[in-house]
Amino acid sequence: MHMGGGVVKIRILILLMLALFLLGCSSNVNTNVKLKVFHAGSLTEPMKAFKRAFEEKHPNVEVQTEAAGSAATIRKVTELGRKADVIATADYTLIQKMMYPEFANWTIMFAKNQIVLAYRNDSRYADEINSQNWYEILKRPDVRFGFSNPNDDPCGYRSLMAIQLAELYYNDPTIFDELVAKNSNLRFSEDNGSYVLRMPSSERIEINKSKIMIRSMEMELIHLVESGELDYFFIYKSVAKQHGFNFVELPVEIDLSSPDYAELYSKVKVVLANGIEVTGKPIVYGITIPKNAENRELAVEFVKLVISEEGQEILRELGQEPLVPPRADTAVPSLKAMVEVS
Question: What average pLDDT does this structure show over 239-244?
Answer without folding.
Answer: 96
